[in-house]
Design brief:
- By secondary structure, the chain is mostly beta strands.
- The chain is 2% helix and 61% strand.
- It is built from one helix and 19 strands.
- The protein has a 19-stranded mixed barrel.
């Protein structure tokens, strides 16, 4: 629910393709001569219905398996090349080459468009383009293609106002020959703390038609958020709390009606600024324990990562080690 790309059963995109935030490119290096960045407070702009569980999702640990080496090379101040090598005992080693281009159109101190991202590896080409025409209107396109055909394409257009947001998305969709998935989102801010909205999904293909409606909302204060999404496909609950500048925690409950199963996950994130380290851990009702540690080095542009997942019920374990330069 809410993950539109994952709903395209023909070719779901890989988890590691999203290289930039959906709405804008944020730089970690503040400009010395520029005025302090003015944060876009939630009281001025409402988010999107799809992004409601974002903070909880970011707290939960995302494990990886095997050995992963990434080298980010800045060619110019707007163009970056990325080399990635993945090695694992469960699948063949692969190499991926990616590029990222950031345009010169500025909409904020740390926000520039258009953003163009491409990646090639294993016979699959992936492309993602994001552009904001104004402060309110943004469009995004995602294309996955193999050597012979397009396996998945997605396009969406969104509008973000001060009190509401709306977005329409098409996945493998065609207007001439009705097919694919169409999704519409709407979110309305009722008060400073409460926002309500909904999602309408229409799927047409393989000689069948189906429509699903999801209702949802978010209640938040200065340090916490509570999100509810429920509909014909299931129920999704999220709770996020920020203890302080270093500690965050979140709880996620997800029930999928089609398979009749539910999973509850508790996760936390600890940031250690003096040690240039961050640790994320999570545990769920499927008896899975996950941990991810990231360590940066002040003297070198280098990041070291360790990942581990242990499922006591299935007696399975997965471990990963990662190196990132740049």
């Amino acid at each position: 629910m809410g993950n539109i790309v994952a709903s395209a059963k023909s070719a779901p995109p890989p988890d590691d393709f999203s290289l930039t935030p959906e709405f804008g490119l944020v730089s970690d290096e503040p400009k010395k001569d520029a005025a302090p960045a003015k944060e876009e407070s939630d009281s001025c702009k409402v988010g999107s219905f799809e992004e409601l569980p974002r903070k909880t999702k970011e707290v939960l640990a995302k494990p990886f398996e095997g050995c992963k080496f990434t080298w980010n090379k800045m060619i110019t101040d707007r163009f970056q090349a990325t080399h990635t090598i993945n090695m694992s005992s469960f699948k063949p080693a692969n190499y991926k080459f990616g590029t990222t281009y950031v345009g010169s159109r500025k909409l904020g101190p740390n926000e520039q468009y258009p953003i163009l991202i491409s990646e090639y590896g294993g016979g699959v080409i992936q492309f993602q383009g994001i552009h904001s025409f104004t402060n309110e209107i943004q469009a995004k396109a995602v294309v996955h293609a193999t050597d012979k055909s397009f396996s998945m394409y997605q396009a969406d257009v969104g509008y973000k106002g001060e009190n509401f947001s709306a977005q329409i998305t098409g996945v493998n969709a065609s207007v001439i020959n009705p097919q694919g998935i169409w999704v519409g989102h709407y979110l309305q801010r009722i008060s400073k703390s409460l926002s309500l909205g909904g999602e309408l999904m229409f799927q047409h293909g393989m000689g069948a038609k189906a429509a699903f409606i999801t209702y949802g909302g978010m209640y938040k204060d200065d340090k916490s958020e509570f999100v509810v999404k429920t509909g014909e496909q299931g129920t999704h609950l999220c709770y996020y709390n920020k203890g302080n500048d270093q500690v965050e925690c979140g709880v996620e409950f997800e029930y999928v009606k089609q398979i009749g199963e539910s999973v509850t996950t508790f996760g936390y994130s600890i940031d250690l600024p003096k040690g240039l380290s961050k640790f994320k851990g999570s545990i769920d009702t499927d008896w899975s324990v996950t941990g991810v540690l990231e360590k940066r080095f002040e003297a070198f542009p280098f990041c070291f990562s360790l990942s581990g997942l242990l499922n006591h019920k299935k007696n399975q374990a997965k471990f990963g080690i990662g190196f990132t330069i740049g």
